[in-house]
């Protein structure tokens, strides 16, 4: 990405970039997700990856990783415990076919009451060459990070934010005079105030 790191990570074709200030107190001016991709990028997109979630809805996430490097990504969610419904390995190279049949089985199992006490966790290992299906009830409003816990992967974009609820309706107001912050990256040298340096 722009900071000179030679590797990017993408989720749903988006490489997350952290916003310059906390969304909880300052909101967010620009973000993207699968339904809202910036037009001016071609191979992958770098932006703050935000998924809008209605409060009290049930969120289901299927993560899969088609690489077979043997590296298991530990995905961690803030603000919730999620339930792990299914995980396993892909059985062929046909990613789309694998995903379809896994989701079909999962839906059947849900309908038939086939899941008994799925384990609650806040971190799950996504198998290399495999998948995991998890769910949580979005009853805790806020801006919650969901990310691979390998720090390097966090930095190169393997994160997204679940924005649950409406800030004005579901969250207490930001206290008056609450400190505000911005992007503190230094300006290019030629733009700097000569009295400052
Ligand atoms: Cu990772």
From TrEMBL:
GO terms for biological process: iron ion transport. Residues 18-165 form the Plastocyanin-like domain. One of its GO terms (molecular function) is oxidoreductase activity. Pfam families: Cu-oxidase_2 (PF07731). Keywords: Copper, Metal-binding, Oxidoreductase. GO terms for cellular component: plasma membrane. This is Laccase-6. The gene is LOC107274594.
